[in-house]
Amino acid sequence: MEEVLKKLFDAVLEGDFEDVKTNLQAALDAKLDPIVILNDGMIAAMREVGCRFEEGEYYVPEMLIAARAMQSGMAILKPHLQQTDRKSSGKVVIGTVKGDLHDIGKNLVALMLEGAGFEIIDLGVDVPAEEFVKVATNVKPDIIAMSALLTTTMSSMKTTLDALTAAGLRNNIKVIVGGAPVTEAYAQQIEADGFSTDASRAVNMAKSLLGV
Questions:
Q1: What is the value of pTM for the model shown?
Q2: Is 101 helix (H, G, I), strand (E, B) or coil?
Q3: Tell me, what CATH number does 53's domain have?
Q4: Kind of pairing, strands 194-196 and 90-96?
Q5: Mind listing the pLDDT tens digit for each residue in 27-71?
Q6: CA–CA separation, 12 and 189 (whole Å)
Q7: Which of 4, 20, 86, 107 could disulfide-pair with 11, CB 3.0 to 4.6 Å?
Q8: 90 - beta bridge partners?
Q9: Which of 81, 114, 133 is the last residue in one of the domains?
Q10: What stretch of H or E contains 124?
Q11: Phi/psi zone of residue 191: left (φ > 0), alpha (ψ -120 to 50 degrees), beta?
């Protein structure tokens, strides 16, 4: 049993799509609990990916490959998880703000958060404040994560925060921001709850904000 999970862990770590699928199926065939497979095989591997990134052993390409390999495994595992009492870490609405079409960083944050057990609603790019408000009203997320890669679109973050406040949603939702030009000082200036420089730290930030 342990051996199957270790092989799955290694496959995610190396970003090997085929090995992820093979070992995931082997774990399911061995009647392992889907939640154990998720936590010990996949989420643990993504945690290790985050550690290696922070230590400078992994870079963005390795993180993306590992996250996508995990996502390919999640497609197989999800139907089995839905039959169990899997506890979500929280619900996150994520998007790149209005006027900005960059999505690599946003996608990586979404993949890493999903790897950490969060439920993700990805709104894509060029998302206006009204869309964030509409979706937040409907799905009641724990966190809204906004990304911007241009100094000219950073102001859309404040516009969105103001719109959430005007809609009466701000007190119930944590807001985290990130992207190359975004600084901690700017996050504080617009009164966001958190700021992250990279995907690995975004996961830690989300967990600390929700206490999970």
A1: 0.76
A2: coil
A3: 1.10.1240.10
A4: unpaired
A5: 999 999 988 998 899 988 988 998 898 899 998 889 889 988 988
A6: 38
A7: 20
A8: 118
A9: 81
A10: none
A11: left
